[in-house]
């Protein structure tokens, strides 16, 4: 089985000429590697505690981390150090073997004109990508998500198991001649599990990935100045299982 740690990031009121955007990132960890990769993150956080005094229980939430919000240590942590922590979190993820990341980044269209519609479309697309990856690898998937949208996401998963009409890229499916085909989520098990990101280093890592993609696609002056807008490119090796 594969565990997918999923978090979101978005621009509801974008600036600098950027469009409204909604991003989802799902970090795939194989069940048999879970303990090893979690220990990698624990070891890093212990190193940070020893070298910089960073609390092991401090949540690395991207916007708080880069915005200077939330206590990280008994003393102030400057912007350069916070950016380094963000960058190193992505680097540690990229160094893990057999880890894969699925990303969705959507902007408004006539059919999805607002943030709520973008969110629904992004989750629909992500679930189908995870299911397709499971079919390709011959592995089942379990989603682990941040708290806050339990009812909405559980309902969507159950709906897609019953009816998941996927449009063809080529106007019609060759085997049916129809524009859409029912492709149920056969490789996504159970409802998503929800837990606080504060208690999960892997969920926090998914948040770092999502924000790095958001600022790669929707850069702002601060992330361009600090180099955060370029960091998503370092995860290219994780794009394919």
Report the count of strand segments. Answer: 7
CATH architecture tag = 2-Layer Sandwich
Q: Helix- and strand-based class? A: alpha/beta
Which percent band covers the strand fraction? 15-25%
Mean pLDDT equals 92
Structure overview:
Helices cover 41% and strands 17% of the residues. It is globular. The protein contains 7 helices and 7 strands; from the N terminus they run E-E-H-H-H-E-H-E-H-E-E-E-H-H. The protein is α/β, with parallel strands linked by helices and 241 residues long. It has a single domain, classed as Nucleotidyltransferase, domain 5. The mean pLDDT is 92. Strands 3-2-1-4-7 form a 5-stranded mixed β-sheet, sandwiched between helices. A two-stranded antiparallel ribbon has the order 5-6.
């Amino acid at each position: 089985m594969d565990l997918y740690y999923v978090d979101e990031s978005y621009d509801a009121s974008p600036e600098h000429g950027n469009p409204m955007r909604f991003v989802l990132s799902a970090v795939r960890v194989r069940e048999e590697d879970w303990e090893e990769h979690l220990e990698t993150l624990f070891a890093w956080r212990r190193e940070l505690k020893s070298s910089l005094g960073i609390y092991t229980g401090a949540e690395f939430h991207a916007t708080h981390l880069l915005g200077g919000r939330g206590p990280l240590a008994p003393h102030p942590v400057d912007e350069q150090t916070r950016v380094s922590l963000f960058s190193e979190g992505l680097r540690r993820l990229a160094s893990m073997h057999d880890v894969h990341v699925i990303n969705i980044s959507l902007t408004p269209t006539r059919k999805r004109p607002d943030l709520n519609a973008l969110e629904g479309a992004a989750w629909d697309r992500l679930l189908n990508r995870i299911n397709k990856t499971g079919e390709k690898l011959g592995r089942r998937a379990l989603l682990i998500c941040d708290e806050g949208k339990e009812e909405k996401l559980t309902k969507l998963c159950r709906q897609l198991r019953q009816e998941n009409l996927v449009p063809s890229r080529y106007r019609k499916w060759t085997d049916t001649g129809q524009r859409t085909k029912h492709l149920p989520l056969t490789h996504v098990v159970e409802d998503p599990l929800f837990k606080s990101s504060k208690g999960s280093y892997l969920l926090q890592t998914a948040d770092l990935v999502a924000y790095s993609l958001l600022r790669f696609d929707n850069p702002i002056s601060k992330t361009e100045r600090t180099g955060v807008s370029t960091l998503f490119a370092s995860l290219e090796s994780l794009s394919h299982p």
